[in-house]
Amino acid sequence: MNLLNFGPFTLDLDRRVLLREGTPVPLTPKTYDTLALLVRNSGRVVGKGELMDALWPDAVVEENNLNQQISTLRKVLGDRAEEGRYIKTVPGHGYRFVASPALPVSDPPDLPVPRRTHRLIPAAIALILLVAGGVWLWFSRTPHAPVSQPRSIAVLPFKSLSGGDEYLGLGLTDVLITRLSNVRGMIVRPTSAVRRYGQEADPLAAGRRLHVDAVLDGTIQRMNDRVRITVRLLNVADGVALWGDTFDDRFTGFFAVEDSISERLTRALALRLSEEERKGLTARGTSNLEAHQWYLKGRYYSTQWTVEGFTRALEAFHRAIAIDPTYALAYAGQADAYYRATTIHLTPQEGVPRARAAALAALRLDDGLAEAHAALGIIKFRYDWDFAGAEREFRRAIALNAEDVEAHQWYSEYLTAFGRVAESVAEARTAQQIDPLSPEVAWDLGLALLFGNRTHEAVEILKTAVDLDPRFWLTHSFLGWAYSEEGKHDLAYSEYEKARALDDNPDVLVQGILIAHRAGRTFDAQRMLDDLLQRSKTRYVAPFYIAAAYISMNQNDRGFEWLQKALAERNELLVFIKVAPSFRSVRSDLRFVAALRRIGLS
Fold first, then answer.
1. CA pair distance 426, 380, nearest whole angstrom
2. Which residues, 6+ apart, have CB-to-CB distance to 347 below 8 Å?
3. From CA 544, how far away is CA 337, in angstroms rounded?
4. What is the b/e burial string over 4-14, where b = at least 16 CB atoms within 10 angstroms of the residue's CB?
5. pLDDT at 498
6. How would you classify residue 95: left for phi > 0, otherwise alpha for psi between -120 and 50, otherwise beta?
7. Do 395 and 420 lie in a common domain?
8. Which residues contact 89 (CB under 8 A, 6 or more apart)?
9. Per-residue pLDDT for 140 more than 50?
10. What is the extent of the structural domain holding 235?
11. What is the DSSP letter of 104?
12. Is 379 within a domain?
């Protein structure tokens, strides 16, 4: 028997198993290979280049991949880097396995036992090996029984080990999240919540921040026509691996890999699925792998919130649809990307009709897509002023997928516009429970409270939103607005300046005009208004912003002139004028009442 002992561990080189006091320890094949290579060279410094050449003979990988394997080993062995009880880092060179002894276990000497017992020893050893093999098989395919069954999970972005295929990692994450979200009784963090945890994230720390019971962590590597995916399901409370596996297949078998991970993960989570849920777990919108690849790329780029990101996302969705015109998910992704692009680099006249057409195409192909209903709902709400239709779409999206955070956010905004404060706050809090670390979600809650005249609560929530991401301009801008409502003008102006330093856009400028005017800084307010008007001569500035700026400075006649232009263009923020504090001073003006009637808010 080819066994190596060190501390409480035994490395079985024949069966490729690591045992701790006789109990198998789940390791991915690559992590096992790393350990075996180090143990076999016990006492010798094994260079990083030597390790990488041995572990990845057919691929060019970064040193970070090796560091990840060493980090995983240290966690499994309970060996902190600064201690180096088993694995010693030799700076600038590599690693040395220092535990002693790490020697083959010799066959046990014959003992003076009765003759008939001695004859039973081979059979007993065989039985022990058989049981041990069964235990290992059970551990490799079945989760360790946790203290309590996980009821919430975060699927972290799969770390790419090969350059140029980053979209596959986040794409696979998105697919698994979508499938698990359709399982009743399981809370799954959305893609928007996990996407910030990239290559270097500590999975357990991420799980604690996301307030989940378990995290799924993994790597993905594409080598020519093959793809290798390793996964591990970790219990956040104690770091115990509940399940782990490796999937190695030709890239043409990527669909089968997605299905296998989904099925084995639900078994590891001990989920009991209905027949409908079981079918949904392996459902896919296309049978064409190339179309699926382009869809994954579209989802990857659309999460970047940049002009380049949305441009590439739209191109990817176009390609997916060209390859498979029946791919409903690609149409839904296209609808979402077009709508979001109108807030960055497309005018509503360019983006909204395309977003609407894509959402309707998705629903004609599959009426059960929550994201398509949500996309259609926000278009009906903000641009069509079909408020009854918008509410139906939001409710339908939530009924189809209660974990759709955007559906809850957008429905909250809808309720805010109609002054349904308690309902709006409740929807925003539901979104926050799904995605507790999102500054955008916290902003939506702040919006509901601010426009619902619960200003002090809005300040506290918006301060929390700023803490979640100090670089997000919108939360600084609205926190300044909320401070202004409380009469805290110095704090308000400070937040406005932070917002403008992060993103000098018309929305921030209008908030600055309101804040400066209320603080008695009339010269500053007029200077900002002149800046806004000057910008509108060379680039598109929504008339709504200029109308709001004039009204904030009590220049109401000019404000209503621009409000008429905003109405003609159906500017998306018009739906909030009934409750926005900046229009409070003109609510009794007959021109304002007429505007409400025209929008359908009277």
1. 22
2. 540
3. 23
4. bbbeebbbbee
5. 94
6. beta
7. no
8. 70, 81, 95
9. no
10. 152-269
11. B
12. yes
Provide the mean pLDDT of the chain.
81
Place of tokens 């800084």: 521
CA–CA dist 247, 267 (Å, integer): 16
Element (H, E) at 154: strand 152-155
Higher pLDDT, 336 or 579: 579
For 525, the token pair is 């307010």
Residues in the chain: 602
Same domain, 257 and 354: no
Residue 130 in this model has a pLDDT that exceeds 50: no
- Write down the pLDDT at residue 49: 79
Integer angstrom CA distances of residue 190 from 180, 285, 374, 432: 10, 19, 15, 11
From CA 346, how far away is CA 446, in angstroms rounded? 27
d(C-alpha 433, C-alpha 562), whole Å: 39
Q: What is the DSSP string of 322-384?
A: HH-TT-HHHHHHHHHHHHHHTTTTS-HHHHHHHHHHHHHHHHHH-TT-HHHHHHHHHHIIIII
> 36 pLDDT band (50/70/90 cuts)?
confident
Amino acid, res. 570: R
Do both 248 and 190 map to the same domain? Answer: yes
Number of domains in the chain: 4
Tell me the mean pLDDT in the region 147-172.
71
In a domain, 114, yes or no: no
Q: What is the DSSP letter of 219?
A: E
- 74 and 160 housed in the same domain: no
CB 409 within 8 A of CB 397: no
d(CA 285, CA 324): 10
**Crossing angle of helices 289-302/166-181, nearest 10°?**
90
pTM above 0.85, yes or no: no
